[in-house]
Specification:
By secondary structure, the protein is α+β, with helices and mostly antiparallel strands. The protein has helices spanning 11-21, 42-49, 63-80, 124-138, 154-162, and strands at 27-28, 32-35, 84-89, 93-101, 110-115, 145-149, 166-172, 175-180. The chain has five helices and eight strands.
């Protein structure tokens, strides 16, 4: 059975996809490159969201649901001028993803991050999130960002707090809301 993520691209379609990807800003940090997602990155996305690691974002997902979620996160670039970046570390390995997204029900753009298990605990999520946050504020001129954190995801809550985000009272779809402001940046 052929799946959307494994179907080969025709030459013209591949060229167009590469040109479109080339319009997504590449962000460089001391240890990371944030670049446009490509189909090959879906394997890392699925590894995260189809496992128990996806529980904090409504998963674990099935492969079709994961593909739909991946496509929606990537499509935000075309619609809002921001979206999902693939976070590349070391020798070109996909470490995870960071996004300035906008999902149904969100009141403001979201700063989110998903990392593969082997890349946690090294400060990479913070490094990627700072790059995406600063791009959103300094280049895109967004006035605020929100991070939606599952109440039991203490690592993510600590991270957004280190970034200078402030908690908002109440829950949004079962998640804590942390608001980032341009004048309260840390990390």
């Amino acid at each position: 059975m052929t799946t959307p993520w494994s179907y080969p691209l025709a030459e013209g379609a591949a060229a167009l996809a590469a040109r479109l990807a080339g319009t997504v800003p590449v962000l460089l940090t001391p240890r990371l490159m944030l670049r446009a997602p490509v189909i090959a990155d879906f394997a890392a996305w699925a590894e995260i969201v189809c496992s128990e690691r996806g529980a904090h974002i409504g998963g674990p997902f099935g492969m079709d649901e994961a593909w739909d979620d991946f496509c929606r996160a990537v499509a935000v670039w075309m619609l809002r001028g921001h979206g999902l970046w693939t976070v590349v570390a070391g020798e070109g390995e996909v470490a995870g993803f960071v996004l300035v997204g906008f999902e149904p029900g969100d009141a403001e753009p979201e700063l989110g991050f998903l990392f593969r298990e082997g890349y946690e605990g090294k400060g990479l999520a913070a490094e990627a999130a700072v790059a995406a946050r600063d791009h959103a504020f300094d280049i895109l001129g967004l006035p605020v960002l929100a991070s939606y954190v599952a109440p039991d995801n203490l690592r993510s809550a600590r991270l957004v707090q280190r970034l200078g985000a402030q908690p908002v009272a109440g829950l949004h779809d079962g998640s804590q809301v942390w608001r980032h402001h341009p004048d309260r940046r840390t990390a």
